[in-house]
């Protein structure tokens, strides 16, 4: 079985001819099966001197989907998803942002579409570009809007309970390669520079249970379809591992190893948040 077949097997999806409907099924399966997490990112960072990469080769990534229940953050999840789509016959390309993010655009007979399985938002179906649209579930998500007077860019808004909490610029430049993101990937893996190098993070969409579930350090957050959020503090590493195994359904995810990496960087995920001065 090659890596494409194993990737589809992990997603629980058959191999289908490219279409909007097939693409939407792949997006939804990815977001509801593979976590948006930095646990594997921290482990890959620790192994960098031996491997020479922060994002694994596609064969290693797909093996770890099965063996470690990993997903990744944006650069890992979206770059590997783009490779999968290309192998399935889609015209898929990487998308650049002014912020530290990477997305994917796909050309179908009806036009270009944006997909994103690495932003921690419920982009369950492709969004037409440049027309735009939104993807909201459990009170959170993203919105794409045309950018006034700029033909080759879009506004990419993060939405929480109807309010814009963050805005990026998405470039419609074509022909980008993975190497074009090397500096951003290096920055993303520099301790002390980004959120994902100083925290423990895991998120998964569970529409079959009417909710999304997220872990940030030792805080567990469950949002339901009506936007209600429940928070609880997990007391220790064992409790985190149990939640990841039972509530997330990812018992192989290397939580203990990731916490150890953070500890080596002098980060205590159980420390109370610092109060703003």
UniProtKB/TrEMBL annotation:
Family: Belongs to the arylamine N-acetyltransferase family.
Biological source species: Tumebacillus lipolyticus
Record's signal peptide: none
SUPFAM superfamilies: Cysteine proteinases
Pfam families xref list: Acetyltransf_2
InterPro entries attached to this UniProt entry: Arylamine_N-AcTrfase, Arylamine_NAT_domain_sf, Papain-like_cys_pep_sf
Name of the molecule in the record: Arylamine N-acetyltransferase
């Amino acid at each position: 079985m090659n890596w494409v077949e194993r990737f589809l097997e992990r997603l629980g999806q058959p191999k289908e001819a490219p279409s909007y409907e097939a693409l939407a099924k792949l997006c939804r399966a990815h977001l509801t099966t593979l976590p948006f997490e930095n646990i594997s990112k921290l482990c890959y960072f620790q192994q960098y001197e031996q491997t020479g990469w922060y994002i694994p080769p596609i064969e290693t990534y797909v093996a770890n989907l099965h063996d470690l229940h990993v997903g990744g953050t944006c650069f890992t999840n979206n770059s590997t998803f783009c490779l999968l789509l290309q192998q399935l016959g889609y015209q898929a390309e990487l998308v650049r942002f002014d912020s530290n993010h990477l997305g994917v655009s796909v050309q179908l007979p009806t036009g270009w579409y944006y997909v994103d399985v690495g932003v921690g938002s419920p982009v369950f179906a492709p969004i037409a570009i440049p027309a735009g649209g939104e993807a909201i579930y459990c009170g959170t998500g993203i919105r794409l809007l045309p950018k006034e007077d700029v033909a080759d860019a879009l506004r990419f808004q993060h939405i929480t309970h109807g309010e814009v909490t963050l805005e990026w610029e998405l470039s419609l430049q074509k022909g980008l390669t993975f190497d074009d993101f090397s500096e951003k990937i290096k920055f993303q893996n520099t301790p002390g520079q980004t959120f994902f190098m100083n925290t423990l993070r895991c998120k998964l969409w569970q529409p079959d249970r009417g909710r999304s579930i997220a872990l940030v350090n030792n805080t567990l957050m469950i949002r339901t379809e009506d936007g209600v959020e429940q928070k609880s503090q997990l007391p220790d590493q064992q409790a985190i591992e149990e939640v990841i195994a039972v509530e997330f359904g990812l018992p192989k995810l290397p939580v203990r190893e990731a916490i150890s990496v953070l500890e080596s960087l002098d980060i205590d995920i159980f420390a109370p948040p610092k109060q703003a001065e």
